[in-house]
Design a protein that fits this description.
Helices cover 65% and strands 0% of the residues. Helix 2 packs across helix 7 and helix 7 runs antiparallel to helix 8. The protein starts with 11 loop residues before the first helix and ends in a 6-residue tail after the last helix.
Length: 135
């Protein structure tokens, strides 16, 4: 992902605060998924434990934001859509994922300008991941 020219940072990874900040966002994201009834459907899609998902999202986001390519080193190209095809993803799942991530970004203190830019990119990716037309 590229940052628009007006950012004082070279990458979103630097802007967010590196690996500790990415880990904090990911941990808050999955904590919220586990705690908030508004994300019930999203949580149901993740099975009984979230530990593997936490690590995979952390590894993926580090590279996607411009940091180390931890995910690719372990698993190769992310192939996001292919890896998510076994899961039923519609508008409701997309919207819960986006809301949960936005709440995690906000609650972990991510700069509002970066949060808004990430939100646009997350929407494009999450919408592309849908494999069901309706909620």
């Amino acid at each position: 992902m590229q940052i628009e020219e007006k950012s004082p940072f070279n990458t979103p990874f630097e802007w967010i605060g590196g690996e500790p900040a990415v880990r904090a966002v990911v941990d808050r994201f999955y904590d919220l998924m586990d705690l908030e009834p508004a994300y019930r459907l999203l949580r149901e899609r993740h099975g009984s434990t979230l530990e593997e998902a936490r690590d995979k999202l952390f590894w993926f986001l580090c590279g996607w934001l411009g940091g180390a390519a931890h995910y690719e080193t372990r698993f190769g190209h992310p192939r996001l859509r292919m890896r998510h095809m076994p899961f039923s993803i519609g508008i409701e799942e997309r919207d819960q994922w986006l809301a949960c991530m936005d709440q995690a970004l906000r609650e972990t203190g991510v700069d509002p300008v970066l949060r808004e830019r990430l939100g646009r990119s997350f929407f494009q990716t999450a919408d592309w991941m849908r494999n069901r037309g309706n909620g």
